[in-house]
Amino acid sequence: MNQIVEQLILISFFLPMMIASLLITADLFLKSIKKAVKRKEVQFFLITILIFTYLYFVLSFSMNLVGFITYHYAFALFFYYYFNRKIGEILTIATPVMVWFYLFLVDLPNREHMVYLILFSVFLLIVMIVLDKINVIADKTKFYLIYVITMVASPKSAMMVYHKVEYEWYQLVLVLLGSFVLMGGFTWLHQLIEKEEKEVIDELLSSRRDSLTGAYNFYTFNKDLVIYNQVPMNRSIAMIDIDHFKAFNDEHGHLAGNDLLREFTQLMEAYLGQTVGSNHYKLYRYGGEEFCIIFEDISIALIYETLESLRVQIHHHAFNISNKQVSGISFSAGIENCQEGEGSLLDALHLADLALYQAKNNGRNQVRIYCER
């Protein structure tokens, strides 16, 4: 009885939770390697070494702890359905080789029965690929179906090459129970990691954007400026300033001014996204009521036409300010281009700012391309 209780703990809880934690660390290692190492062959080599080390550890641990090999296909299945299908396919075929290698080190296995291991893996891979073609079945359902069958059947196929081990039917029941613990433990840990990653990404994005308008902030602008200067290409800068914003604040209040800045930004983002495409520009809040736009691979003539049309649209737009409709808002803009290999983006920024100054001195509510006087 004590042996059954011990195996219940080992097979149904301890070993599954250990494998679940190994899967999570393998996933984190996979992500880190992809960021740190650029060469695909080096990535593949490092990932292969780690996974096969984990797999050997599971084989040795299960054999010595419970007396037979189990859960050895967990890495192949979880990688195939959660992390990387290519690695999952390779692991499905490589797992029987690893099992035979481990048993060879322990005690010479039955070579004639090695074919059962290979046939099981080939059959498993074929079923996985065929199920992928069936769109009416959800991916999670496919995984659950293959997973449960494999977890229960794989110990038998593994031990056919090692005839010295006999195990009771209740041990397979414990493996079935443990497979659910493994699945639940992995799902729980994986969701925790994903939640933490999402929080980190959200914090990173919020630190890069202006909290009021949602545009990129000045900190991000300075960082991007350094990056852009290191990677020369055809870029243009537009400096935009809302006309008479101080007077608007004095008349309507600072809260109304915040409403104006928010809606003004939303209008710019929507219009620029439709006209030039979101991949060709970045909008920054430069400070106060001043904004900066960096355009990529767009002619200065098209930028002028776009901003001129935007200016007209905003001037006729009825802003919803403190539950009141306010129209007649205008802006002034200055534009300068930075051709690849001709000066820096910082120089273009300075000239765009001068063009904005020219527009404001010339009566505001206009778009100007920089020209020397």
Automatic annotation (TrEMBL):
What the entry lists under PROSITE patterns is as follows:
GGDEF
Membrane-crossing segments per the record: 6-30, 42-59, 90-108, 114-131, 143-163, 169-189
GO CC annotation, single: plasma membrane
- SUPFAM superfamilies of this UniProt entry? Nucleotide cyclase (SSF55073)
Q: Name one GO molecular function term.
A: diguanylate cyclase activity
Q: What keywords appear on the UniProt entry? A: Membrane, Transmembrane, Transmembrane helix
By its UniProt entry, which Pfam families does this protein fall under? Answer: GGDEF
InterPro entries listed in its UniProt record: Diguanylate_Cyclase, GGDEF_dom, Nucleotide_cyclase, Rev_trsase/Diguanyl_cyclase
The domain of life is: Bacteria
By its UniProt entry, which PANTHER family does this protein fall under? Answer: DIGUANYLATE CYCLASE DGCM-RELATED, REGULATORY COMPONENTS OF SENSORY TRANSDUCTION SYSTEM
Q: What is this protein called?
A: GGDEF domain-containing protein
Identify the species of origin.
Answer: Jeotgalibaca arthritidis
The taxonomy runs:
Bacteria, Bacillati, Bacillota, Bacilli, Lactobacillales
